[in-house]
Amino acid sequence: MSLTATALAAKRHERTMSSRSRRITKLRRLKNDQREGRNRASWLADLGKTHQDAAQAMEDRHRQALESRRTKAAMSRHTPKGIIGRIQSFFRLTP
Can you give the pTM of this predicted structure? Predict the structure, then answer.
């Protein structure tokens, strides 16, 4: 059962085409994996930045609340209406 030259050429051509197809598929898969890796990395970077921004915003709100509390405590209250309250507030203001 020896093969003719045409049959040998056909088998060789089939082998070549299948190996070429495997190589192209492998390269395509590698390229997709690299793209997916880049997407994952950018997603993680965006997630980290979002987390950082949220933490900064929370810290700013906390600082603002503390400052508001200090400002409210530092603001002078209205003077009491009674004579005793006015005397007390006078002595409270003098150092």
Answer: 0.42
